[in-house]
Amino acid sequence: MLPVVGLSERREAVKPPTSDDNACEIFIEVEGQKEKIPLETYITGVVAAEMPVSFKKEALKAQAIAARTYALKTTNYGKTAIAPTVARQVFYDEEQRKANWASNFLGNEKKIVEAINETKGQVLLYNNELITAMFHSTSNGKTESAYGYSGNNVPYLQSVASVSDQASPKFTAEQEWTLAQWNKLWPVQWQASDFNRVQLFYNDSGRVDRLQLGNNVWTGREVRTILGIPSTDFTINYNNTTRKVHVKTQGYGHGVGMSQYGAEAMANEGKTAAEILHYYYQDIEIKKIDACLK
């Protein structure tokens, strides 16, 4: 009789990210996790959480390099903890990946681990310093500049065209509220007539810089937070017949840095991870870190 192969034995087909097994290995402290996690294992969990596993390997590799850079920059090479949330980077541990992927776990894990191993240690640098490697799901057809997002000009975070994002399932969205529901969200009370005099001011990337209603002014980012909408590229309309407020958005996320769906489109065109990264982050270098120097 052939021996029964258990899950633990079958899993040998999925080799974890490789390690040099030296004292210089970097560990990442993830809030909510009991123990610190080896850097490349952590990046496996980030890529699994942040990008669809169905994407091309070159897109996954680009995501791995961006996520590794972001993690090291944010944690100062593992010296401080990082939250596993959209405010930082989402992270799925192995248990979560098994639950999400079920019977597809082995194949999906293998694909992502290969992308991690093929980019092991690679990070993005500008003037020999780690960049803030911001990324987002889907742009509105153009990425947002760091200046447009925060008012701070960052040389490697400029606005670039990303028109292929329009094919993303997350490109457009519509939400509606009754006027009563709408007013529960705002610190001021709107009247139906206010929607005829509200003003939206857009920046160069087509996103709302500010919304003005009389003497009240909110930034596009503040409006996005108040309404819980996908992006700051939005329009607001009030339907007098249904008495409902309609908000339509384009894009998903803050729009700064690499567009994930844009990366997938470039990968489908045959572009490499390096080409994707050099497109979305200007004048950067891709180098392998030496953890022993940290």
TrEMBL record:
Signal peptide: none annotated. Pfam families: SpoIID (PF08486). GO terms for biological process: sporulation resulting in formation of a cellular spore. One of its GO terms (cellular component) is outer membrane-bounded periplasmic space. InterPro entries: Bact_Sporulation_Assoc, SpoIID/LytB, SpoIID/LytB_N, Spore_II_D_firmicutes. Residues 35-126 form the Sporulation stage II protein D amidase enhancer LytB N-terminal domain. This is Stage II sporulation protein D. It comes from Lysinibacillus irui.
